[in-house]
Specification:
The protein is of the alpha/beta class. The chain is built from 13 helices and twelve strands. The structure holds adenosine-5'-triphosphate, iron/sulfur cluster (SF4) and magnesium ion.
């Protein structure tokens, strides 16, 4: 299907649902995500483990395989044509053959572990050149030049081309996967926790390189991680996922300075502060619910310190409360222009609210009653 879009929009995800078949029913891992990705931005996808980040990334990449399946929705990708307004393809409906062509050439993927994509029995140059030849008509010389250019961009010496993966460190291997991802100058790169397996210092350097590469090549990067500190460093805009849904989407500065969703506030309060004198963070009380049975109303309500009656019954719609700031929470029922004052956007103090929250009170009562974990289970 061809369609036109606002030229700034690269991707438009509409009501996407990606579920897993299980013996206990469908695990509704991604369950109604709406999201727009702009050209040339670094978009950080955040949320606790199990909230559906990787499932959403796979949905976007057309990598959904059984037991996962797309229940419904669209993922329109606006490929640029001759630098002007783009042609849309719904990646969900694209035949597998066309999707394979689209991947690498227009959308590339950097996985969590380089081991998953690099063949242990082929030299780096073979792996990079094969990918280039498969998707372009480049001559051997052009392809080799491109390969060395990409190795250089990720800070690797030309000699690395002759090496096998087992001769490389973890950081070098991950750089090779980034070189492979950028080798065809795609418009979009989706990186799913690409540096979590690495040492913190190496992680830092690679993140910086990735940011520079995205700017130099003018590409769009969707960066997936549960690590809020990485988003603070890397992202232009962020999307916070909870229980298969997007709950807040906003520029990174606003997200950290003035989180609108209580869950975002909780995630930020869980970041360890180096030298901040806080040994324990407040964190978020309770556990994430199961995708086999989401809570009714707002899915965060069993853990939310500000829960109201309406939250238990009604799903909060995603509202643009201010330009470029979307939130799905009954605390923010109207756009900013209609609300009484900008102060309405501020949430009460998180630490104080959490200490009063029913989940925390229950834990407190148990502790005071002297019960042990074994007695509770
Ligand atoms: N093969 C599967 N079968 C059933 N459920 C699955 C399967 N894979 C994932 N899930 C469920 O889907 C939900 C979302 O998983 P997903 O891997 O997308 O989360 P995530 O946000 O990427 O987590 P993490 O930060 O740990 O990588 C989880 O509740 C998970 O248990
Ligand atoms: S809708 Fe209600 S329960 Fe959900 S996050 Fe907002 S205040 Fe909390
Ligand atoms: Mg994941």
């Amino acid at each position: 299907m061809n369609a036109q879009s606002n030229s700034k929009t690269l991707m438009e995800i509409k009501d996407l649902r990606v579920w897993y078949r299980t013996t206990r029913g469908n695990a509704q891992a991604v369950d109604g995500v709406d999201l727009t990705i702009q050209r040339n931005e670094i978009f950080g996808l955040a949320g606790e483990s199990g909230c559906g980040k990787s499932t959403l990334a796979k949905g976007i990449l057309g990598m959904v395989k059984l037991p996962a399946f797309v229940e419904s929705g669209e993922a329109n990708f606006y490929r640029s044509v001759s630098g002007s307004t783009a042609v849309a393809s719904d990646l969900i409906k694209l035949p597998a053959r066309d999707m394979r062509k689209m991947r690498w050439r227009h959308i590339a993927y950097v996985p969590q572990s380089a081991m998953n994509v690099l063949s242990p029995v082929a030299r780096v140059e073979k792996q990079l050149l094969d990918a280039i030849f498969e998707h372009t008509n480049m001559s051997k010389k052009e392809a080799r030049d491109r390969m060395f250019e990409c190795l250089d961009m990720v800070g690797l010496e030309p000699a690395v081309a002759r090496m096998y993966p087992h001769e490389l460190s973890g950081g070098m291997k991950q750089r090779v996967t980034i070189a492979a991802a950028i080798s065809l100058k795609p418009e979009l790169i989706i990186a799913d926790e690409p540096t979590t397996a690495l040492d913190v210092n190496v992680q830092q350097v690679i993140l910086q390189e990735l940011k520079e590469i995205a700017a130099d090549l003018g590409l769009t990067l969707i960066y997936v991680t549960h690590d809020m500190a990485v988003h603070a460093e890397l992202a232009d805009r962020m999307g916070i996922m909870y229980s298969g849904l997007m709950v807040e989407v906003a520029p990174v500065v606003e997200t950290f300075k003035e989180p609108l969703h209580p869950y975002t506030q909780g995630l930020i309060s869980s970041i360890p502060m180096i030298g901040g004198g806080r040994e324990r963070m407040t964190g978020i009380p309770g556990n994430a619910p199961s995708p086999l049975a989401w809570p009714a109303g707002c899915r965060f309500h069993p853990r939310c310190p500000y829960v109201m009656e309406v939250c238990r019954e009604k799903v909060p719609p995603m509202i643009e409360v201010a330009p470029n700031r979307l939130v799905a929470c009954h605390l923010h029922p109207t756009p900013l222009s209609e609300s009484a004052s900008p102060a309405d956007l501020s949430l009460p103090d998180w630490e104080e609210a959490v200490s009063q929250a029913p989940v925390v009170q229950a834990i407190q009562d148990i502790k005071e009653g002297g019960e042990t974990a074994e007695e509770l289970s």
